[in-house]
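Notebook entry, structure prediction.
Reason for the run: the old model in the group folder had no record of what sequence produced it. Starting over properly, with the input documented here first.
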Amino acid sequence: MPRGDKSSYTDKQKRQAKHIEHSEERSGKGKETAERIAWATVNKQDGGGKKASSRHGGHH
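New structure, fully documented this time:
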């Protein structure tokens, strides 16, 4: 997946990332850094993309 391709994310995830990005920028981070933190946070919460939500259950 090319860097910057956000097509596998839901609208909700994109909105969330934007929101995080803005608050990071307000706290003095640069645009690049803020964006990286925002998407890393969304990935951490949801496991990245739409793929995570289609799997139900544990690790088995």
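Summary: The longest helix spans residues 11-26.
The old model has been moved to the deprecated folder.
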